[in-house]
């Protein structure tokens, strides 16, 4: 069995493929990857020892980054699903973050793997709300709520920085 | 005239001095620094080329990280001010993030310096709300609203990961 491609592996060079959070072409970046597991989009990530906040715990900015990129990826993947299309079909559907909300429920231990589980709460035209939960092992430590907005087609074709 | 110390330069080894976002001892980290300018706390940060989202623009996780660490630092600095104390006096006052909200108003250009300007909106016991604006040059591109909570004294003394 070959591993399926992650949502982010479909991003083109003019969009998220260079993203520090999730771009496959950003060698310094976090390269987070998201996959469907049924109707839940799942991202697993191993923090590095230097991703610390206080000693032993993950810094909040990493948690926000995981929730952010995983949510926009999930919004894109859900849009293809809603249209009954594969993620490599045209036109491409890409999302950016309009607002990000994270509730930090308790400190997130840094040793083990983190898992972000996201579901689509609402799709209204070009706006998609994604809710997520972040776990360290089986401990729920943060919740995310992200409003994602689909970028104009012209942006995807023409944006070159 | 010597440069004053940043809020984060007072953090001890058991707390934020190792933070990826703002710890002076985290060599891989962002090492963001915050200073008072009157009643506004200001953080200036030069994004690196790899901090990209789409080509030419800063990724949202960096913006969230700047707002997060700058806000907890501002909450701490404001608590000392409220007690009429210097930041090197005992007992230390340290804050963590309970919730982080960022509104991304428009894409943030990556070339120039970013400035986060924060003010304390409310102090209620151990909970401090910090509101902030992020500028790229003179362009307002994001707004933050962070609920910070003071950590227990025992945490500062005893936490060793």
Structure characterization notes:
2 copies of one chain form a homodimer. Helix content of chain A is 19%, strand content 33%. Chain A is α+β, with helices and mostly antiparallel strands and 161 residues long. A 6-stranded antiparallel beta sheet of chain A has the order 1-2-4-5-6-3, covered by helices on one side. Chain A is globular, with a radius of gyration of 15 Å. The mean pLDDT of chain A is 94. Chains A and B meet through α1 and β3 of A and α1 and β3 of B.
Helix vs. strand class of chain A: alpha+beta
CATH architecture of chain A: Roll
Mean pLDDT of chain A: 94
* Alpha plus pi helix count of chain A: 2
Q: In which order are the strands of the major sheet of chain A placed? A: 1-2-4-5-6-3
Topology:
Two copies of one chain form a homodimer.
Chain A: E1 34-37, E2 40-45, H1 60-83, E3 95-104, E4 114-124, E5 127-136, E6 139-150, H2 153-158
Antiparallel strand pairs in A: 1-2, 2-4, 3-6, 4-5, 5-6
Question: How would you summarize what this structure contains?
Answer:
Chain A has helices spanning 60-83, 153-158, and strands at residues 34-37, 40-45, 95-104, 114-124, 127-136, 139-150. With 161 residues, chain A is of the alpha+beta class. At the A-B interface, α1 and β3 of A face α1 and β3 of B.
């Amino acid at each position: 069995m070959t591993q399926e491609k992650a949502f982010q592996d479909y991003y083109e060079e003019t969009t998220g493929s260079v993203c520090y959070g999730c771009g496959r072409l950003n060698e310094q970046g976090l390269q987070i990857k998201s996959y469907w597991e049924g109707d839940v989009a799942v991202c697993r990530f191993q923090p590095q020892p230097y991703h610390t906040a206080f000693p032993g715990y993950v810094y909040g900015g990493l948690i926000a980054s995981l929730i952010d990129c995983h949510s926009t990826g999930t919004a894109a993947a859900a849009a293809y699903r809603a249209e009954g299309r594969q993620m490599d079909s045209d036109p491409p559907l890409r999302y950016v973050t309009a607002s990000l909300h994270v509730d930090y429920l308790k400190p997130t231990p840094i040793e083990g793997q983190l898992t972000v589980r996201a579901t689509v709460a609402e799709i209204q035209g070009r706006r998609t709300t994604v809710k997520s939960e972040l776990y360290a092992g089986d401990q729920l430590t943060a919740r995310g709520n992200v409003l994602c907005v689909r970028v104009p087609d012209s942006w995807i074709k023409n944006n070159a920085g």
